[in-house]
Amino acid sequence: MSVKIWALTTCFNRRVITLRCLKSLYAAADKAQCQLSVCLVDDGSTDGTTDAVQNEYPEITVLRGDGSLFWAGGMRFGWNEFVKHQFVDQLLVFNDDICFFDQALLQLIQTTKDLRNAGITCTAIAGAFRDPVTGTTTYGAVKRIHLWKSFKFERLDPKDKVVAADTLNMNLALISKEALQKIGFLSPHYVHSKADFDFGFRLKAAGGKVLLAPGHMGECRRNSKSGRSTEAGLSIRQRAKRLFSIKEHPFIETFYYYRKYAGPLWAVLLAKKYFNRLFR
Question: Cα 158 from chain centroid?
């Protein structure tokens, strides 16, 4: 009996990249002999992404946004409008800029089976990605470095068995129905980033497991510094505008995130973060 997996992603003006990702996803699904039901949220693309996806993959459910959803908002929109109304046994969340290896879904499904056989069912299993040039791990799951050193994280390299983590990137993750039933999906406190880390923290606090699957699941470059507050040569005003924008660290949601997760020194660490980003 084949496994049924519901999958959810969001995209914006990356037609070629999105189609490449979907092609590799379906190749991985064929390798794993699993059934996919994919929901894609197109947040106001103007480059023909929606039409291209519907022409190439008419079986995909495409929901349209107006450009104001961003990543976390788009994922919640897809969840609320489509996915949560289904009988979801496992939810695969992924970014549209990744390229799956053929064995990726097979590895995630086998990892889930092994965990269930061991009595571990409330899980979010992250998949690690590597840079296509250097081979170094770019995204996956993380462990917290000691709080007194700072509110920072160590990126984990995948091993030949599952690795326990504190939280995860949702470039790729397989989330069990038990985890979704226990804590729901992404928090409405976040518009773009931080929602995936928040999910991992909430799941662990509720008694669930955040894990990194064995091996790399595919290739994905780290986000470029171009256009971000860390780009060289910016004035303080330019840096501040980018830093406090929705795509980086808007104050209200960053305040909430640090107060909830950064420990007793959260206010100091928050002030330090903004100071370093602006002046160093």
Answer: 17
The maximal CA–CA distance of the chain, rounded, in angstroms, is 59
Tens of pLDDT, residue by residue over 86-125, are: 988 999 999 999 999 999 999 999 999 999 999 999 999 9
Q: What is the pLDDT of residues 228-255, one digit of tens each?
A: 998 888 999 999 999 999 999 999 999 9
Answer yes or no: pTM beyond 0.90.
Answer: yes
Kindly list the domain boundaries of the chain, sorted by start residue. Answer: 4-219, 236-279
Give the homologous superfamily in CATH for domain 4-219. Spore Coat Polysaccharide Biosynthesis Protein SpsA; Chain A (3.90.550.10)
Q: Are 160 and 111 in contact (CB under 8 A)?
A: no
Q: How would you write the chain as a 3-class SS string? A: CCCEEEEEEEECCCHHHHHHHHHHHHHHHHHHCCEEEEEEEEECCCCCHHHHHHHHCCCCEEEEECCCCHHHHHHHHHHHHCHHHCCCCEEEEECCCCEECCCHHHHHHHHHHHHHHCCCCCEEEEEEEECCCCCCEEECEEEECCCCCCCCEEECCCCCCCEECCEECCCEEEEEHHHHHHHCCCCCCCCCCCHHHHHHHHHHHCCCEEEEEEEEEEECCCCCCCCCCCCCCCCHHHHHHHHCCCCCCCHHHHHHHHHHHCCCCHHHHHHHHHHHHHHC
Mean pLDDT within 178-183: 97
Return the bridge partners of 11, or none: 42
**Structure-token pair, residue 263:** 């420990």
